[in-house]
């Protein structure tokens, strides 16, 4: 969903003839439309054939619908926190080439309780000694160019218990490929989270009993020219020796599995239907080199 502040206030002041009000109203509508479109595409880019596209702007976030958690907006991403599972049911953000090509800052060392979760988030002690990695949903590397945004990815509201060989294996491969694709395609809309329609594998932490998801999803949307496309993934929370395309599917299929509607108001419904109904992995270049590295090295982490 695209959440945009729009000013529809057009109340007149004083008195005027009906004809004058009509003319002023029409002129104002034209000015408002021009202001909206020039504001939405303030970077000077206006791709041919995409004039009805809603774009990301400022502090606004596109967000999924159909979930029940507490919505929290950060500078770089937005999340919905599920108290029952003590983690985000989704995180959503824009991944852009211009940011990824900047110099990385220093990686933070400490995971932090999220003070913005009204019911209280998971704590670091919930993960300590659990045997599970503190798995980022919005990865540090996607925000490493901005120190403030990078620090926000270490809130434990953005962390989920991931099997070590999953987090540092197939999930790492998908995260690295997502950055490769953003560099290649310019910009991606990204939504990631645990699959909460499937019973968890158990819990960690005596105090908060953080649920261990059985699987995770990631959906990616490319709305830029020359080729709009979308793809989704659902991957079990365990070591994998299968190539990533095995887990690729349409966004519609991920929505069916998760009961989440990812991009319902980000674009016209006919465009949404077209893009979400297909998840062709041939349009997303996979890396045999990364796959081989996962099999030979990453999966062997202890």
Quick rundown:
With 302 residues, the protein is of the alpha+beta class. The protein has eight helices and eleven strands.
Characterise the protein shown here.
With 302 residues, this protein is an alpha+beta fold. It has two domains: 16-46; 52-300, Extracellular Endonuclease, subunit A (Extracellular Endonuclease, Chain A). Helix content is 28%, strand content 20%. The chain has helices at 18-40, 97-100, 124-127, 147-152, 164-185, 251-258, 269-276, 288-296, and strands at residues 70-73, 78-82, 87-96, 132-136, 159-163, 187-194, 203-204, 210-211, 215-222, 229-236, 248-249. The strands form three sheets. The protein has a seven-stranded antiparallel sheet with strand order 1-2-3-6-9-10-11, sandwiched between helices. The chain has a two-stranded antiparallel sheet with strand order 4-5. A hairpin with a 4-residue loop joins strand 1 (70-73) and strand 2. The protein is globular and about 50 Å long. 37% of the residues are buried.
């Amino acid at each position: 969903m695209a959440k945009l502040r729009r000013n529809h206030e057009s109340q007149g002041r004083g008195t005027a003839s009906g004809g004058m009000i009509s003319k002023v109203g029409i002129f104002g509508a034209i000015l408002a439309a021009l202001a909206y479109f020039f504001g939405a595409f303030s970077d000077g880019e206006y791709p041919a054939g995409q004039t009805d596209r809603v774009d990301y702007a400022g502090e606004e976030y596109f967000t999924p619908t159909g979930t029940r958690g507490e919505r929290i907006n950060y500078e770089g991403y937005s999340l919905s926190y599920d108290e029952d599972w003590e983690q985000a049911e989704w995180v959503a953000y824009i991944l852009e080439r211009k940011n990824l090509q900047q110099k990385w800052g220093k990686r933070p060392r400490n995971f932090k309780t999220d003070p913005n979760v009204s019911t209280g988030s998971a704590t670091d002690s919930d993960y300590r000694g659990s045997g599970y990695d503190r798995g980022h949903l919005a990865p540090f590397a996607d925000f490493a160019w901005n120190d403030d945004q990078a620090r926000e990815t270490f809130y434990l509201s953005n962390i989920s218990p991931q099997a070590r060989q999953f987090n540092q294996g197939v999930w790492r491969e998908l995260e690295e490929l997502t950055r490769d694709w953003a560099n290649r395609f310019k910009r991606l809309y990204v939504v990631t989270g645990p699959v909460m329609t499937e019973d968890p594998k158990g819990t960690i932490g005596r105090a908060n009993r953080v649920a261990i998801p059985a699987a995770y999803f990631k959906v990616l949307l490319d709305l830029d020219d020359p080729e709009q496309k979308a793809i989704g993934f659902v991957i079990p929370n365990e070591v994998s020796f299968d190539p990533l395309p095995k887990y690729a599917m349409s966004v519609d299929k991920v929505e069916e599995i998760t009961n989440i509607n990812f991009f319902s108001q980000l674009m016209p419904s006919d465009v949404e239907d077209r893009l979400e109904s297909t998840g062709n992995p041939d349009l997303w270049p996979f890396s045999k080199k990364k796959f081989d590295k996962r099999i030979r090295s990453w999966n062997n982490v202890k």
